[in-house]
From TrEMBL:
SUPFAM superfamilies: Actin-like ATPase domain. This is Xylulokinase. GO terms for molecular function: D-xylulokinase activity. Keywords: Carbohydrate metabolism, Kinase, Transferase, Xylose metabolism. It comes from Curtobacterium luteum. Belongs to the FGGY kinase family.
Length: 493
């Protein structure tokens, strides 16, 4: 039976699946992994693990479905990340991860000034420089690790690293490139040579390909390592949030996609490249697409931290959080446990829990964490609205949708209906869909129809108004203190 392989390299796990060309999932598998946090603000990952887990999972899936005739491969991964490799394609150091790694915070103004100021950066890239910008991460490595940089020839992200090892092609999808700010022009869809030379001197920039396009074909060496057939096509790939957005058909202006994962990601498709202060302007996965994106630095990471802290299991803690009720019995949390990305762009923000008493339970804390992420989503929505980007509905995907509590809280806080699709396995499903597009005529509405729509409860929404105002005020009231605390634990560089 003809099938496609979709693989996603996430922050906490790599997930893979085989699907028929009609979207029926035949088999799934995953591998858990950890990130490294060598110092406060530094978040890295072993780049060799990406290929090792891809190959291992692929062989496992092929053994589990022996009659699968794999026709194409799609890969996605976390990003924007930076893995430096030498002329022989060997990693030179661990990969620097996306905006949760805040090592560039103190050089953003300096780099902006070097490029002529904020206006030209926004005009060409659509976004200001933040700790999310992979181009600044390259500059940090060039300036702080000159011995490593002297041996660097290329850079990859998780998806492009695996695509390169599968095909021998040095490529990067346009969407991922649009998050290498300030190296990519979101209007002309090309590298900006003079800024590449200034921030990443001597580094060869990859060939640009749209996410669903063919980047190359599986080589004999890759086939031997993975069990895949020689010569089958491989897509250019994408950053995981965009692949997950593809999996639920998010590319409609007026609808915002929410990725419920270790962090929470938001994608609002637009009719053109629109600059929204505090958020990121990117291109989409195919020509003609533009969007404004946002992301929290934590979300599921907080609930996982609480689960480990209390030695609980997911189902029990969700039940306890639901029993806690709206407002978490008077608890209010700021979810900035690793700084925050959009819209406040504050790498020195920290988590705060206000209102604690000895009567509070772990269910109250868990509920407060879920409500905090919902308030963060609303803050991003209000930032979009202020720039003229209208969002009328939400569509969700990701592991956080197990159970209905979290998305229900998000809809109640934002006041927006939210579609939950039939398949919520995430980015690997979107990657499989992109792969299927190389060999068949496919439609995501057929692959993944809606399962249900969560409508906001008007009474709950009114009740959350005061909580949201307090959420915004709490950050303003505590920012100076948490910034001082953050400086005391800053990395020594």
């Amino acid at each position: 039976m003809r099938a496609v392989l979709g693989v996603d390299i996430g922050t906490s796990s790599t997930k893979a699946l085989l699907a028929r060309l009609d979207g029926t999932v035949l088999a799934e598998s995953s591998r858990q992994h950890d990130v490294d946090r060598p110092e406060q603000g530094l978040v890295e990952m072993d780049g060799d693990s990406w290929w090792a887990e891809f190959a291992e999972l692929t062989r496992e899936l092929l053994r589990s479905v022996p009659d699968a005739d794999v026709a194409a491969v799609g890969v996605s991964g976390i990003g924007p990340c930076v893995l430096l490799t030498d002329a022989d394609d060997r990693p030179l150091r661990p990969a620097v991860l996306y905006g949760v790694d805040t090592r560039t915070a103190d050089m953003l103004d300096e780099v902006t000034a070097e490029l002529g100021g904020l206006d030209p950066v926004r005009a060409r890239c659509g976004s200001a420089l933040t700790t999310q910008a992979a181009g600044v991460k390259l500059a940090w490595l060039a300036r702080n690790e000159p011995d490593t940089w002297a041996r660097a020839a290329r850079f990859t992200m998780p998806s492009s690293r695996v695509v390169g090892l599968l095909t021998g092609e040095y490529v990067l999808d346009h969407h991922s490139a649009s998050q290498t700010t300030p190296l990519y022009d979101v209007h002309e869809h090309r590298w900006i040579p003079e800024w590449c030379d200034a921030l990443a001197p001597g580094l060869l920039m990859p060939r640009l390909v749209w996410s669903g396009e063919r980047a190359g074909a599986v080589t004999a060496a890759a086939a031997a390592a993975t069990g895949l057939p020689v010569g089958i096509p491989v897509t250019a790939g994408a950053i995981d949030a965009w692949a997950e957005g593809v999996s639920v058909g998010e590319a409609v202006p007026g609808r915002m996609f929410l990725q419920y994962g270790t962090t929470m990601f938001m994608i609002a498709p637009t009719t053109g490249a629109i600059a929204v202060p505090g958020m990121w302007t990117t291109v989409g996965t195919r020509p003609g697409q533009a969007c404004v994106a946002g992301g929290t630095a934590t979300s599921g990471a907080i609930t996982e931290w609480l689960r480990r802290l209390f030695h609980g299991d997911w189902s029990t803690m969700l039940e306890e959080a639901e029993a806690s009720g709206p407002g978490a019995n008077g608890l209010l949390m700021l979810p900035y446990f690793a700084g925050e990305r959009t819209p406040i762009a504050d790498p020195h923000a920290r988590g705060v829990v206000a209102g604690l008493t000895v009567r509070h339970t772990r269910g109250d804390l868990y509920r407060a964490a879920l409500e905090a992420t919902a308030y963060a989503v609303r803050h991003n929505l209000e930032t979009l609205a202020a720039a003229g980007v209208e969002v009328r509905e939400l569509v969700g995907a990701g592991g956080g949708l197990r159970g209905s509590l979290w998305p229900t809280i998000v809809s109640d806080v934002t006041g927006l209906p939210q579609t939950v699709p039939s398949v919520t396995v995430g980015a690997c499903f979107g990657s499989a869909f992109l792969a299927a597009g190389l060999v068949a005529d496919v439609d995501i509405a057929t692959w993944n129809p809606a399962d249900r729509v969560i409508h906001p409860d008007p009474e709950a929404h009114r009740g959350y108004e005061a909580g949201y105002r307090d959420f915004r005020d709490l950050y303003d009231a505590t920012a100076a203190i948490v910034h001082r605390l953050a400086r005391r634990t800053a990395p020594h560089r």
